[in-house]
Structures are given as structure tokens and as C-alpha cells.
Amino acid sequence: MFLRLFLLFTIVPLVELVLLIKIGGVIGVAPTIAIVIGTGVLGAWLARWQGLAVLRRIGDEMAAGRLPTDALIDGLLVLVAAAMLLTPGFLTDSAGFLLLVPGTRAKVRRLVAAAMARKAGSGKPDVIDAKWFRED
Q: How many helices and strands, by DSSP H and E, does the chain display?
């Protein structure tokens, strides 16, 4: 786990930096900065909009007496998308925007739910069948 996090926090910023430099060299510094700021603002607005929709879904599910598992995972994915969109860079912005698209988010939600189910095991508690009696 440590190795994955280390790679995530070192490799991704390096790739983002290389992309920013290369794109900045092609289109110029000012347009590159404008794109980064624009995607951050647009991403924050979209994340807020999608987040409020997820909160409404959670409320509707709970009002109907159902556990809002899909909506909760969607909320987590919208939060991850918002963090990616607020991080400067083209790679993270692309991933963040993809997570805000409901169809893409549904596919990722299924992957996350399957991974969580694997981590939790079968989901069935161990049952011990026993008879008991009291000794006086």
C-alpha cells in the first residue's frame, strides 16, 4: 500500500508537470494557465452540482427505507472527482471529468463495489451451530 501511494504521489505529479510543460510549449503559457484555472472553476461547479444530486438521491433512498449504498459510493466518487479537478493538470482533470459523467461513474461504482465486497469477504458472518444448557 505504501508503494502504491508513493508512486501515486510522485509519478502522477511528474507526468502532470511534463504534460503542462509540453502543452505550454505548444499553445503558450497564458492559454495553459487559463485552461488550468478554467477547468478548476468548471470542475468545482460540476462537482457541486453532481454532489447535490447525490445528496438528494441519498435522502430519497433513506425516505423510502432503503440503504443508499450506490448513492454513497457515488458521493465518494464525486468527492474524488472534485479533488482531481482542483488539482492542476490535464491528466487529473480528464479523470475528474470522467468521474462526473453519470455513465462512467456507474461503471466505476460497480468496480468499487466489487472491490469492497472482495475486501469484506463473502459478506456472510461465520455461524457456529451449538446447543447450550445450564448446569446448576
A: 5, 0
- pTM of the full predicted structure? 0.77
Give Cβ neighbours of residue 93 (< 8 Å, ≥ 6 apart): 36, 39, 43, 84, 85, 87
Residue 80 and residue 28 in contact, taking contact as beta carbons nearer than 8 Å: no
Sign, Cα dihedral of 19, 21, 27, 30: positive
| Ordered DSSP codes for 40-104 | HHHHHHHHHHHHHHHHHHHHHHHHTT---HHHHHHHHHHHHHHHHHHSSSHHHHHHHHHHHSHHH
pLDDT in tens, 3-48: 889 888 899 999 999 999 999 999 999 999 999 999 889 988 988 9
Measure the CA–CA gap between 37 and 13, rounded to whole angstroms: 17
Q: Which residues contact 107 (CB under 8 A, 6 or more apart)?
A: none
Q: What is the pLDDT of residues 48-83, one digit of tens each?
A: 998 899 999 999 999 999 999 999 999 999 999 988
